[in-house]
Amino acid sequence: MVASVQNSTAAFPAAANEASQIGVTQDRFLKLLVTQMKNQDPLNPMDNAEVTSQMAQLSTVTGIDKLNNTVQALSSSMLASQSLQAVSMIGHPVLVTGDGIELGNGQGFAAVELAQPADQLTLSINDASGRAIRTLQLGAQDGGIVQMTWDGLTDSGATAPDGRYTISAVSELGGQKSAAATLEYGLVNSVAQSQNGVTVNVGKLGDVSLNAIKQIL
Question: Directed axis angle between helix 48-87 and helix 2-9, to 10°?
Answer without folding.
Answer: 170
